[in-house]
Design goal:
This protein is of the alpha+beta class. The chain is built from five helices and eight strands; from the N terminus they run ββααββαβαβαββ. The chain has a single domain, classed as Gcn5-related N-acetyltransferase (GNAT) (Aminopeptidase, 3-Layer(aba) Sandwich), CATH 3.40.630. Strands 1-2-3-4-5-6-8-7 form an eight-stranded mixed sheet, sandwiched between helices. Strand 1 and strand 2 form a beta hairpin. The two termini are 21 Å apart.
């Protein structure tokens, strides 16, 4: 999908270093990971996209899993215990320079299109409440996500707000 702001395309091997750097830039709002873990998540992902800017640089990315993944995330497992069919956004990150340009919305619209094509009527995600991430909470609310629960994870160091977007 091409737009004036750039394009959405499948995440490929050439993107991994930039995706990892962007992910690590946003820790603790997204979980920290190394290259092996990133490759593992991508291998299980139903959808892995990057958004590029008009200049061709990385504007953002999203990694999405569906049911049946062997993924060990406690947040993924929380949704898997509650839904037979669901679309789970494991992580989404937008480069600081592209914030407010619609990159996050474009990524989530692609996730919604993918979910519908897979027969899923719900997109699931979580946002930290501790440590707080108010910008992400506000963005997800604008997208139509609603809170369906909370849980503490990672040795009671992170509390997340469990969110669902009904399609």
């Amino acid at each position: 999908m091409t737009t004036a702001a750039g394009e959405l395309r499948s995440l490929d091997d050439a993107d991994l270093d930039e995706v990892l750097a962007l992910n690590q830039h946003w820790v603790p709002h997204v979980g920290s990971l190394g290259m092996d873990r990133l490759r593992g998540i991508r291998a299980e992902a139903e959808l892995a996209l990057v958004a590029t800017t008009a200049a061709g640089s990385l504007g953002g990315f999203v990694l999405v899993l569906g049911p049946g993944a062997a993924y060990d995330s406690p947040n993924y497992r929380w949704f898997a215990e509650r839904h037979g069919r669901f679309t789970y956004v494991d992580r989404i990150a937008v480069d600081s320079a592209t914030m407010g340009s619609g990159v996050g919305r474009r990524l989530y619209e692609a996730v919604a299109d993918h979910a519908r094509a897979q027969g899923s009527s719900v997109v699931c995600a979580e946002v930290n409440t501790e440590p707080p991430n108010p910008d992400s909470q506000a963005f997800h609310a604008r997208m139509g996500f609603v809170e369906v629960g909370r849980q503490w994870t990672y040795g009671h160091t992170v509390e997340v707000q469990m969110l669902e977007w009904s399609l």
